[in-house]
Each structure stands twice: as C-alpha cells, then as structure tokens.
Design goal:
Elements (H helix, E strand, L loop, with lengths): L1 H10 L6 E2 L6 E2 L5 H18 L6 H24 L12 E5 L6 E4 L3 E5 L3 H4 L2 H16 L2 H13 L2 H9 L2 H12 L13 H17 L7 H11 L5 H4 L4 H23 L23
Parallel strand pairs: 3-5
Antiparallel strand pairs: 1-2, 4-5
Helix pairs in contact: 3-5, 5-9, 6-8, 9-12, 10-12
Bound molecules: zinc ion (ZN).
The site of zinc ion (ZN) has 7 residues, from helix 5, helix 9 and helix 11.
C-alpha cells in the first residue's frame, strides 16, 4: 500500500491514481483508457479474425443476453453513483467462440469472449452470469490499465515513465507486448494477478446480483471448475487456490445479496436458470 502511495505521489499532477468502483481499492493507474484501447483493440480485432465464432445460435444469444444484462447493471450502478465518465469509452461486446478450452477472457473497454468449452461448467444462464460478471469485473476495475502501469514501474524509472507516456507509442508498445504477450494464442488473455482475480470475483457477484441473478450460484460453479482442474487458464491461472476463491466468494455473498434485495426485493426469487439448448437432443454436452 505504501508503495502505491509513493508511486501516486510521483505521478501526482501528471496522472491520477484511481480507485476501483465498488471495492474502493486504490490502484496505480498511469495510463488512460485511450492508450490502453489503442493497444488492445487491434489485438482484439486480430483475434476475432483468426478465431472461430460459435455456430450455436442458442448459446451465442444467451451469452449476449447475459452479458448485456450485466453491462446494464454496470450502467445502472455507475449512473446511480455519478461515475459514468469512468466507462464513457467502453463499448461492450460479448462473443461465444468455438474453442474447447474451459475459459473466457476480457479485453479493455468491455470486449468479452467466452469459449464454448466452458459451457458444460456454466451449465445454465446463472452460471454464465458468474463468468460474465467476473470478466466484466476485470473491465470496470481497469485491471489491464493497472497491469500496464505496474509493468511500466517495473521496467522503467519514474523519469522514463514520464517519457514513455508523453512520447509516442513506441515505448508503450514495447511494454505492452510484455503485458499482452503479443503474437501468441494467449495474447489476448491478460495475466491478471491473484488480487485482481479475487477482486473480479467480488465485483462479478455484485454485478450479477444487480442484474437479478442468484449470486449464490457462484459457489457450485467454482466447485465444478475446480473439479476439471486445469491450471493454465485465465480464470484459474494466477490462482487463488480453489479453496481461497470459494472462501472469499462466501465472504462477499451477503454484500451481493444486499444489492439484490435492495433492487429486486427480498420476496423475489433470483432469476433462475434455464439450461441452454445445445443444438441436439442428447443430455450430453457436445462441443
Ligand atoms: Zn479473471
């Protein structure tokens, strides 16, 4: 924390330190959305050119529907708290891509991708809301900006940061290539750290509750994920061990349910889930 304040002091007058909406955590933020978006949009478009969109219309529509509900929850929250300017440049997009990996990822500015491989674990609309809430959480917490800022501090002295930021994008580009891992399959998956992962979980629970979903369903979702046990995925990579993650989620559930009750009333049953149809009549998932 002291380090953050020190860095904030260095940056003072030039670039502000931010605080994360909802959680209020202070974060180092040396780069603007403009800068991050310039870097990431090209990558996002490149990714879309090479990746395969799912042809499963039902699940594609479900991803968009749930994503939009979460995005609407973000819009409502930021409007109610007078923070709309923080997401003014966001343009939400929710994609379902044909890919067997059990994964999803988020790029700055609200570009979210879900792989078909995770659908057997989400199982239904509420499960998808857990995943999309988490990814949207990364976006509104500006975790990419934070990672980029941290990388700049690691790689450069304070003076060089100023030069890098005021100069043209060459240096920022160089730094970002280490952050984004340009040119690899995992290029678009930002290597968020453990703290950011848990924060995205926290934000996701609140957002899904505001959107009308039962945040309690995050527990069985993460239990299903822990059983599949891969360790190289964005959602699991910088882990929070499964136990830590589930314990933390337990801790945040009452807060999420307060949001739910305030908006939807205590007598209402949280939006239940309808298992999405999978384009076949079998009860098995085939992707
Ligand atoms: Zn994540």
């Amino acid at each position: 924390m002291k380090k953050i304040f020190l860095l904030c002091t260095i940056a003072l007058g030039l670039y502000a330190c931010g605080s994360v909406p909802i959680t209020g955590r202070r974060q180092l933020n040396l780069v603007s959305d403009d800068q991050v978006l310039t870097l990431s949009l090209q990558q996002y478009n490149d990714y879309l050119k090479t990746a395969k969109k799912s042809t499963d219309k039902t699940n594609t529509a479900l991803v968009v529907k749930v994503g939009q509900k979460i995005a609407d929850a973000v819009g409502a929250y930021f409007k109610a708290t007078g923070q709309e300017a923080l997401i003014a440049e966001y343009k939400w997009e929710f994609n379902l891509m044909e890919d067997p990996q059990v994964n999803a990822f988020c790029m700055p500015g609200g570009k979210i991708v879900v792989y078909t491989g995770i659908l057997p674990y989400t199982q239904n609309e509420t499960g998808l809301a857990v995943v999309l809430g988490h990814e949207v959480g990364h976006a509104i917490a500006k975790h990419a900006n934070e990672r980029l800022s941290q990388q700049m501090v690691t790689d450069y002295t304070g003076a060089a940061i100023g030069t890098a930021l005021s100069g043209k994008s060459e240096k920022i580009q160089a730094i970002s290539s280490t952050v984004y891992g340009l040119g690899t399959q995992v290029a678009v998956m930002l290597p968020f750290n453990r703290k950011q992962e848990l924060e995205a979980d926290h934000l996701g629970l609140i957002l899904m509750a505001i959107a009308g979903y039962d945040a309690n369903q995050a527990i069985p979702f993460w239990q299903r994920m822990s059983q599949q046990g891969s360790g190289t995925l964005e959602l699991l990579s910088t882990h929070p061990s499964d136990n830590t993650r589930i314990n933390e989620i337990q801790k945040y559930l009452p807060e999420a349910m307060e949001y739910y009750t305030a908006i939807w009333g205590s007598g209402t049953t949280p939006a239940t889930s309808t298992p999405p149809k999978n384009g076949n009549t079998s009860t098995e998932w085939h992707f």
